[in-house]
Protein backbone atom coordinates (compact mmCIF):
# COMPACT_ATOMS: atom_id res chain seq x y z
CA UNK A 1 0.00 0.00 0.00
CA UNK A 2 1.31 3.45 -0.91
CA UNK A 3 1.59 6.25 1.64
CA UNK A 4 1.02 8.85 -1.11
CA UNK A 5 -2.76 8.84 -0.85
CA UNK A 6 -4.52 10.36 2.15
CA UNK A 7 -6.71 7.27 2.54
CA UNK A 8 -3.56 5.09 2.82
CA UNK A 9 -2.21 7.10 5.76
CA UNK A 10 -2.68 6.27 9.42
CA UNK A 11 -5.93 7.69 10.86
CA UNK A 12 -3.89 9.86 13.27
CA UNK A 13 -1.60 11.19 10.51
CA UNK A 14 -0.70 14.87 10.86
CA UNK A 15 -0.29 16.66 7.53
CA UNK A 16 2.46 19.31 7.54
CA UNK A 17 1.09 22.65 6.38
CA UNK A 18 4.18 24.79 7.06
CA UNK A 19 7.74 24.32 8.32
CA UNK A 20 9.54 27.21 9.99
CA UNK A 21 13.32 26.74 10.53
CA UNK A 22 14.40 28.07 13.95
CA UNK A 23 18.01 26.97 14.49
CA UNK A 24 20.70 25.22 12.43
CA UNK A 25 23.64 23.87 14.47
CA UNK A 26 26.56 21.51 13.90
CA UNK A 27 24.70 18.52 15.32
CA UNK A 28 21.01 19.39 15.40
CA UNK A 29 18.49 21.70 13.81
CA UNK A 30 15.18 22.88 15.22
CA UNK A 31 12.03 23.59 13.28
CA UNK A 32 8.42 24.36 14.11
CA UNK A 33 5.84 22.66 11.91
CA UNK A 34 2.22 23.68 11.62
CA UNK A 35 0.16 20.52 11.16
CA UNK A 36 -3.42 19.60 10.42
CA UNK A 37 -4.75 17.24 13.07
CA UNK A 38 -7.04 14.30 12.29
CA UNK A 39 -10.03 16.37 13.47
CA UNK A 40 -9.23 19.20 11.02
CA UNK A 41 -7.80 21.58 13.63
CA UNK A 42 -4.22 22.86 13.41
CA UNK A 43 -1.39 22.64 15.94
CA UNK A 44 2.36 23.26 16.09
CA UNK A 45 5.09 20.68 16.58
CA UNK A 46 8.62 21.57 17.71
CA UNK A 47 10.94 19.12 15.96
CA UNK A 48 14.64 18.46 16.50
CA UNK A 49 16.37 17.04 13.41
CA UNK A 50 19.44 14.86 14.05
CA UNK A 51 21.56 12.88 11.55
CA UNK A 52 21.35 9.70 13.63
CA UNK A 53 23.89 7.93 15.78
CA UNK A 54 25.56 4.61 16.44
CA UNK A 55 26.60 2.79 19.60
CA UNK A 56 28.58 -0.38 20.18
CA UNK A 57 28.30 -3.12 22.78
CA UNK A 58 31.91 -4.30 22.69
CA UNK A 59 33.08 -7.17 24.88
CA UNK A 60 36.73 -7.87 25.69
CA UNK A 61 37.40 -10.90 27.93
CA UNK A 62 33.72 -10.88 28.96
CA UNK A 63 33.93 -7.21 30.00
CA UNK A 64 32.10 -4.37 28.26
CA UNK A 65 34.02 -1.38 26.96
CA UNK A 66 32.62 1.90 28.27
CA UNK A 67 33.71 5.50 28.21
CA UNK A 68 33.20 8.16 30.86
CA UNK A 69 32.74 11.76 29.83
CA UNK A 70 31.12 14.93 31.08
CA UNK A 71 27.62 15.54 29.67
CA UNK A 72 26.81 19.25 29.84
CA UNK A 73 22.99 18.90 29.53
CA UNK A 74 23.03 16.68 32.67
CA UNK A 75 25.84 18.66 34.38
CA UNK A 76 27.63 15.46 35.35
CA UNK A 77 29.96 12.76 34.07
CA UNK A 78 28.31 9.67 32.59
CA UNK A 79 29.51 6.16 31.80
CA UNK A 80 28.28 5.08 28.36
CA UNK A 81 28.99 2.56 25.65
CA UNK A 82 31.10 3.99 22.80
CA UNK A 83 28.87 6.03 20.51
CA UNK A 84 28.71 8.95 18.12
CA UNK A 85 26.75 10.65 15.39
CA UNK A 86 26.63 9.61 11.78
CA UNK A 87 28.60 11.75 9.36
CA UNK A 88 26.81 12.89 6.19
CA UNK A 89 26.30 9.90 3.87
CA UNK A 90 27.98 7.47 6.30
CA UNK A 91 26.58 3.97 6.71
CA UNK A 92 25.77 3.07 10.33
CA UNK A 93 28.00 -0.03 10.38
CA UNK A 94 31.01 1.97 9.18
CA UNK A 95 30.26 4.68 11.75
CA UNK A 96 30.04 2.09 14.54
CA UNK A 97 33.45 0.66 13.63
CA UNK A 98 34.92 4.18 13.39
CA UNK A 99 33.46 5.41 16.69
CA UNK A 100 34.55 2.29 18.58
CA UNK A 101 38.17 2.73 17.53
CA UNK A 102 38.18 6.52 17.97
CA UNK A 103 36.94 6.29 21.56
CA UNK A 104 38.43 3.01 22.83
CA UNK A 105 41.40 2.16 20.64
CA UNK A 106 39.82 -1.19 19.71
CA UNK A 107 39.04 -2.10 16.10
CA UNK A 108 36.15 -4.45 15.34
CA UNK A 109 37.09 -7.23 12.91
CA UNK A 110 33.39 -8.08 12.64
CA UNK A 111 30.26 -6.40 13.94
CA UNK A 112 26.57 -7.37 14.18
CA UNK A 113 23.56 -5.04 14.15
CA UNK A 114 21.39 -5.58 17.24
CA UNK A 115 18.68 -2.94 17.12
CA UNK A 116 17.80 0.56 15.95
CA UNK A 117 15.55 2.78 18.05
CA UNK A 118 14.25 6.33 18.21
CA UNK A 119 15.49 8.25 21.24
CA UNK A 120 12.68 10.78 21.76
CA UNK A 121 9.97 10.41 19.09
CA UNK A 122 7.81 13.08 20.71
CA UNK A 123 10.16 15.83 19.53
CA UNK A 124 13.21 14.38 17.72
CA UNK A 125 13.87 12.22 14.64
CA UNK A 126 17.16 10.77 15.96
CA UNK A 127 17.64 7.04 15.38
CA UNK A 128 20.41 5.18 17.24
CA UNK A 129 21.78 2.00 15.65
CA UNK A 130 23.25 -0.43 18.21
CA UNK A 131 25.90 -2.96 17.21
CA UNK A 132 27.67 -5.80 18.99
CA UNK A 133 31.19 -7.16 18.69
CA UNK A 134 33.48 -9.41 20.66
CA UNK A 135 35.85 -9.82 17.71
CA UNK A 136 38.36 -7.06 18.47
CA UNK A 137 41.97 -6.15 17.86
CA UNK A 138 44.00 -3.34 19.34
CA UNK A 139 43.88 -0.15 17.30
CA UNK A 140 44.50 3.49 18.20
CA UNK A 141 42.44 6.09 20.07
CA UNK A 142 41.58 9.16 17.92
CA UNK A 143 39.50 11.54 20.02
CA UNK A 144 37.95 14.64 18.48
CA UNK A 145 39.53 17.95 19.54
CA UNK A 146 36.62 18.76 21.86
CA UNK A 147 36.29 15.22 23.24
CA UNK A 148 37.65 14.32 26.69
CA UNK A 149 36.98 10.83 28.02
CA UNK A 150 38.41 7.76 29.65
CA UNK A 151 37.81 4.17 28.61
CA UNK A 152 37.53 1.09 30.80
CA UNK A 153 36.29 -2.49 30.55
CA UNK A 154 33.68 -3.37 33.19
CA UNK A 155 31.99 -6.57 34.32
CA UNK A 156 28.25 -7.12 34.11
CA UNK A 157 28.06 -6.72 37.88
CA UNK A 158 29.89 -3.37 37.70
CA UNK A 159 27.54 -2.22 34.94
CA UNK A 160 24.52 -3.10 37.07
CA UNK A 161 26.02 -1.19 40.01
CA UNK A 162 26.69 1.83 37.75
CA UNK A 163 23.00 1.82 36.78
CA UNK A 164 21.93 1.69 40.44
CA UNK A 165 24.33 4.52 41.31
CA UNK A 166 23.20 6.67 38.35
CA UNK A 167 26.61 6.61 36.65
CA UNK A 168 24.88 4.87 33.74
CA UNK A 169 21.53 6.48 32.96
CA UNK A 170 21.30 6.95 29.20
CA UNK A 171 18.92 4.71 27.25
CA UNK A 172 21.45 3.20 24.87
CA UNK A 173 23.77 2.05 27.66
CA UNK A 174 20.98 0.77 29.90
CA UNK A 175 19.65 -1.16 26.88
CA UNK A 176 23.17 -2.48 26.23
CA UNK A 177 23.57 -3.71 29.80
CA UNK A 178 20.20 -5.50 29.76
CA UNK A 179 20.95 -7.03 26.35
CA UNK A 180 24.31 -8.24 27.66
CA UNK A 181 22.59 -9.70 30.73
CA UNK A 182 20.07 -11.50 28.50
CA UNK A 183 22.90 -12.89 26.36
CA UNK A 184 24.75 -14.05 29.49
CA UNK A 185 21.65 -15.82 30.83
CA UNK A 186 20.32 -17.30 27.58
CA UNK A 187 23.19 -17.31 25.09
CA UNK A 188 21.34 -14.93 22.79
CA UNK A 189 20.48 -11.22 22.63
CA UNK A 190 16.93 -12.04 21.51
CA UNK A 191 14.91 -14.59 23.45
Give a concise summary.
Keywords: Hydrolase. The protein is an alpha+beta fold and 191 residues long.
Structural class: alpha+beta
Strand proportion, as a percent range, falls in 35-45%
The overall strand count is 12
Number of helices: 3
Indicate the CATH architecture of the largest domain. Answer: Alpha-Beta Complex
H/E element string?
EEEEEEEHEEEEEHH
Poorly predicted runs: none
Given this structure, which CATH class of the largest domain is correct? Alpha Beta
Largest sheet: 7 strands, mixed
For the record, give the distance between the C-alpha atoms at the N and C termini, rounded to a whole number.
Answer: 31 Å
Number of domains: 2
**Going by CATH, what is the homologous superfamily of the largest domain?**
Nucleoside Triphosphate Pyrophosphohydrolase
Q: Overall 3D geometry?
A: elongated
Helix content: 10-25%
Mean pLDDT: 93
Rg over CA atoms, rounded to whole Å, is 19 Å
What is the fold named in CATH at topology level of the largest domain? Nucleoside Triphosphate Pyrophosphohydrolase
Descriptive keywords:
7-stranded mixed β-sheet, 3 helices, 191 residues, alpha+beta, Nucleoside Triphosphate Pyrophosphohydrolase, 3-stranded antiparallel β-sheet, 2 domains
